Amino acid sequence: MIRTMRRVRAHPGYEPDVEPAFRTVAGTISGLAGNLAAELLLDAAEPRTFVVVTEWADESALRDYENGPVAARLAELFRPLCEPVEEGGYRVMSAPEGGGPGARICVDVEVTVPSVRLAEFARGYAQVAARMPGVPGYLREDLLREPGSDTYHIFAEWAGEAEFFRWIGDPAHAEEEAGPIAPFLLDFRRRLFHLRTTSETTRGPSTGRESGEETVHTTTDVLIVGAGPAGLTAAVELARRGIDCRVVEKRAEPPAQADKAIGVHCRTMEIWEDQGIVRDAMDAGNWLTGQMVFVNGEETHRMSWELPELPYAHLGLPQYETERILTERLATLGVRPRRGAELVAFSQDDDGVLATLGIAGGGRETVRAKYLVGCDGAHSRVRELLGLTFSGGLGRFPQLFMLGDVDVDWDMPPGHLLRFLHETGGRMDNMLVCVPLRGESRYRIATMAPPRFFAQTGGKDAPPGFAEELAEPTLADVQTVLDELAPPGTRASNLRWSSVFRISHGIVDRYREGRVFVAGDAAHLHPPAGGQGMNTGIGDAWNLGWKLALAVRGIAAPGLLDSYEAERRPEGERIVGRAVRMAFTDELDREDLKRQFLDEMSLLLSYAGSPLVGEAVARPGTLEGPGPGERARDASGLYRRGVGHPLRLRDLTRGTRHTLLLYADASANEAEMAAVEKLCADVRQQTCGEIDVYLVASADARVPWMLDPPVVRDSEGEFRAAYGVNGTALYLIRPDGQIGFRSRPIDADALGNNLRRVFGGAR
């Protein structure tokens, strides 16, 4: 006979959900061939800790269970509820005859404690627990309880049988150690097991990290490779829609220094508002309030980035802080990245993907998922295994660059990004970019590396990305560049870290292959100008997340996932091209710096060419607001009955569903208004409820009393002005904040046709 015991710790607040989840499959486990028992015990000392106990007739029965669908289903149910299983949290035992000499043993003493005597037992057990560590051979124990009963298990581990029987054979033990609970030991059941070593066990599906050399098998809906900003964003979007996902990351520890992106775009800030982390980001970062450009020591232009129409300003935030904030948000949704797990290989079929992971310290894990998303960066294993190539080849700048985190003493306006260029004969031959960080006089500097670093490569092409094999630049190196390019008298101090890197740029030929997708740096590589790489990767995940969620739930149109590449690859191609052109120029378009800045901040993002978007306008060109595929504009001054303060439009569109905005002013007739309620019912049915509907009415519109849809008054006309509407009209806002469809007047049939492009698979 073989017993297994797996400890799981519930996330705070999820304790009541663990037992029902176990009961869902407990009966199925009991019905499996060779199963002798299946129960869930509570740790009496740790209310959030549970122990799953199974007993099996032999090794074969255990192996069939742990490699089969029932164990995978239990792991799937526990994953969103529980923390990863810590090392040592899974134990396998065998009946006494199965152990060898000197093997550790586990003793399970089962006692009954009537509820009226529970306090007496608790006092006595505390005394016993304090005395036992002094007994030779005794190692540790747990006090476990069967849910909803008076049955407790004192589960103790001993160095061996000899030590245990020596102790119980001593008449004094009952008085000296066990005496305080002796009244409860008049009627008890004792079972003894030999604890098996890890190499003797076969382990199946787990809820988290475990040690050993065996192959672990797990299942999930979506496997995300990479715990950078793109991977974490994708996971947040899936998890907050109730989709089971796993994030694996080959780095054992999160980054601790700002050697990557530090600029958070205005559009990304809007995304973070929707995800509920914008305040955390603002609290941790600093505002980038403008930009100054100097060429050969002369200021060529200065621009303020504090524009009144911005939803949020441009934020400075080191990427390690971005990852921390996203990781913490993901944890509130019951998901934690699995670190030290590297993708080795995968295969896919019509139903899903089978991935093999290498686990730090040895061992393998296979994960069966419906979809896989590669967010594993510039050296993407997913991209490599898919055989994706860079269109036109991977470009590399011949220069080596250095980065540093340093204090700079000078007279420059706070919050400004500073670019110093040196040109000879109209060609740039040196540059220095300084981005303010949080803290007085602290900057991230980027500039060309001194010649000795290129010499260290032997004149050969250095690898893309950060070159760990090269020495770190010194404070003297930074000061040399400042002496050449910055205002006279500028001094550097307190160099916290530095590194050398090479810029690569390119975009892959496709973003999807079957059930596997790439996003972020796995799909496109950028020069660091404008911080485009991280923000574009977040935009990729933001676009893909809601579409994957519908696909997992089986309510997506057949072509919905194809729209990810159709929408994001052209955007990636445009951004890569622009970043390459900007890398060695003082500016692209001095005539319209404001528009250029808004474009860099992704506020002018448009999917106008997407197969998902459309419009039905009676007189083309008469609707002046944002068009199909463009970012939905915000508007304030909206009033809803019963709410004592004005609303923003984003208060209505925020969330995980589509939003349908129906507009009507005083010219709308009775028939048009009567059709609104039926339209609401139709679209809710067509979208399986994945839509919120509001009637935005002008201050003078005559709106009949109706409960559906909710009415919001555009009392100050801001919505009308932002969207250029009159009469009746509708706007369909997608979960990613882009406009999916618009019509004027309201065209229910055209709207239905558009929704079928998204929800054509709805059941």
From TrEMBL:
Classification via Gene3D superfamilies: 3.30.70.100, 3.30.70.2450, 3.40.30.120, FAD/NAD(P)-binding domain
Superkingdom classification of source: Bacteria
Keyword Glycoprotein: no
Cofactor(s) the protein requires to work: FAD
ABM domain boundaries: 2-93, 105-193
Keyword line: FAD, Flavoprotein
Parts forming coiled coils: none
UniProt GO molecular function: FAD binding; oxidoreductase activity, acting on paired donors, with incorporation or reduction of molecular oxygen, NAD(P)H as one donor, and incorporation of one atom of oxygen
PANTHER family cross-referenced by the UniProt entry: BINDING MONOOXYGENASE, PUTATIVE (JCVI)-RELATED, TRK SYSTEM POTASSIUM UPTAKE PROTEIN
Protein name (database record): FAD-dependent oxidoreductase
